[in-house]
Amino acid sequence: MTEANRQTLIASVPDSFDTGPDWLRTLRARAAKTLRQQGLPSKRTEAWRFTPVRSLVNSEFAQNDGEGPSLVSAVPAGVTVRGLTEVLQSQPELLRGRLDFGGAPTHFAALNTAMFRDGLWIDVPAGTIVEAPIEISHVGPSSSEPRVAYPRVLVTAGEGAELTLIETYAGGRAGQLSNSVVEAELGRNAKMSHVRVHESAGLQIGRVDVRQDADSAYRSTVVTLGGALLRFDVRCLLQGKGAECQLDGAYLTDGDDHVDHHTLVEHEAPECRSAQTYRGIVSGKSTAVFDGIVIVHRDAQKTEAHQENRNLLLSDTATIHTKPHLEIDADDVICSHGATVGALDQDQLFYLRARGVPEDFALAMLTYAFVESIVDRVSHEPTRSRMREALLSRIPYGDEIREVT
Questions:
Q1: Which parts of 213-318 are beta strand (E)?
Q2: Domain edge (last residue) among 290, 317, 343
Q3: Residue 402: domain span
């Protein structure tokens, strides 16, 4: 018996798919075949060796009824938001080639492809500039029975289109699983700002795939406020000349939390730019992982790519694994990467203490400032304020810090 045969989550995948258009049935069948051949990841899977998913993949989950992301803001003028199921029934050819365009899915993304029941398609036509953000709420299963949900979101932005998407993953209970996939296709000169907040008590596996045409720009800001187990992957394919992406993240962990952020940026065309800045505060017995990869392909000359991961380790029992790295096959590039793990800056602490600030309060202020710099990059002010409040609620002396900032 193979490891895949022993994995309960895979056992829930149907043997055949008989609904939907031919291309979707083929897509689902291919994903199911991959799962049965390769299985879900284990400690022997290099990219997952720090993610403790063994108990998860061998647990029994009922699929959540009535699942699906919920739009919580009004649909801006010029934007079309439709359910994936409705489109697949009425105009399936509109979605051909737009699901799993990041490549053949593997692991949990393949499981989502095989099992998702519905989702949202957000389409922003060419030349449409959306001023108000589009907000989506993903509320995890609340049943006392272990359940799994498979949220799915597709975003397509035409040439010159601009939008902001805000996603919140919240609610849920310990032991409930959310396995989400978000895909974004950006046309020439399109711009997308993508804010994602993780504050669910359940188990979270998430993946974002972005495909970018020439001169497009994608900006991601991820704020992770703990979690029993969170694994988040983002992949950007810079396929057109002059495309750029900025990936920012902040994470706070405590207790027995485990949060795991993986990024992959592939420079496939010349004159593209990418930057990654992730900051974490790790305390208690928690574990944080950052694994960032930049691949510069041979034809991607005049690439500029930078990575930075900085961490504050606030207890002797917390653990950090950080691994930013570059794979470069071009010679005309500007690339850098770096990581730090340490305590708060003693010179800054001395400065505050010398001005009469109590030590505990000074430590809290510096801790907050360390991650606030990431939140400050969110352009939408109401969202930025909400994220600041969420951070303050999890940091000692949050009320006092609020009064002086």
A1: 217-225, 229-238, 244-253, 258-267, 273-282, 287-296, 303-313
A2: 343
A3: 344-405
Are 376 and 326 members of one domain?
A: no
Residue 362 structure tokens: 């000074």
Based on the fold, state whether residues 54 and 133 are members of the same structural domain: yes
Same domain, 222 and 366: no
What digits encode the pLDDT tens for the residues 98-114? 998 767 788 999 999 99
DSSP state of 76: P
7: Cα separation from own chain's centroid: 25
Mean pLDDT of 368-386: 88
Cα separation values, 173 from 63, 64, 202, 228, Å: 15, 13, 5, 10
Compute the radius of gyration of the chain from its Cα atoms.
21
**DSSP labels, 13-82:** S-S---SS-HHHHHHHHHHHHHHHHH-S--TTSGGGTTS--HHHHTS--EEPTT---EE-SPPPTT-EEE
Assess whether 337 and 245 both reside in one domain. Answer: yes
209 is written with which tokens?
């795939």
- Better pLDDT: 185 or 19: 185
- Say whether both 33 and 12 belong to one domain: yes
In this predicted model, what pLDDT tens digit does every residue of 129-152 receive, in sequence order? 999 999 999 886 666 788 899 999
